[in-house]
User: Fold this.
Amino acid sequence: MLTKRHLMAAGAALLVLGAAAAAQDSRPSATTAAPAGTRFITVASTTSTVDSGLFNHILPLFKAKAGIEVRVISQGTGQALDTGRRGDADVVFVHARAAEDKFVADGHGGPRRPVMYNDFVLIGPKSDPAGIKGSRDIVAALRAIQTMAAPFVSRGDRSGTHQAELALWRDAGIDLAVTRGSWYREIGQGMGAALNTAGGMNAYVLADRGTWLSFRNRGDLDILVEGDKRLFNQYGIMLVSPQRHAHVKQADAQAFIDWVVSPDGQKAIADYKVGGQQLFFPNATDSGA
Assistant:
């Protein structure tokens, strides 16, 4: 049987709930739209374009020309392509040709346009326990590391660098599923974290040259192997499919792609240097790249 006291308690509870609901309604939603007039696109891109400082150099130039802000999701290439597949970006800008071709073939975006290249380098401790310093043969170097069970850090994150590393182990005839041991450490993180880990462990690590040149916490690490043609590192850019994802900002995204591969965009890429060294080399006119 409801008493007066019960009814008063229920009424008080309803007042509290009503106030909470009103407070909830007054808070801005996490999905609140951007202010009217804001023009931006989202680019899912490999970590090296961010960690190297390249985007800090070229994106303000694009915004000044086109009035379009570029918001970057910095991920390993595999994750960036997954972001594109979900339609959570307008553009993908990555460096793993086979994965890029599959992205296009599966209808998730395209066409793929070549943008620029640099190369990978094998970083390691100056003490060089595997004795590979100065070699231009990356396959022989990896075999020496595995034979010595010298510490090696892998990104392990499905990035373009990780995919390139795995391909190089295969080229060396080394089956990591069989031969890997405590000497081989996968960290599942980006290039900066991999370099920091390698520094802490006095380990070897494969890195893109652009990130290495921009990396400040080098400690006892140095480039030990470079110059092998198998270390070539090509970047490509693609529009995410507006047919699959109607919210893709096709016009503005295409404007960014067109600028990146234009003479102005290519010059901006070529002009970016760290310590006087050019980090990326534009090659948008090379249709086979």
Notes: The longest helix spans residues 4-26. The two ends are 82 Å apart (CA to CA). Residues 91 and 239 are 5 Å apart (CA to CA). The chain is about 45% helix and 20% strand.
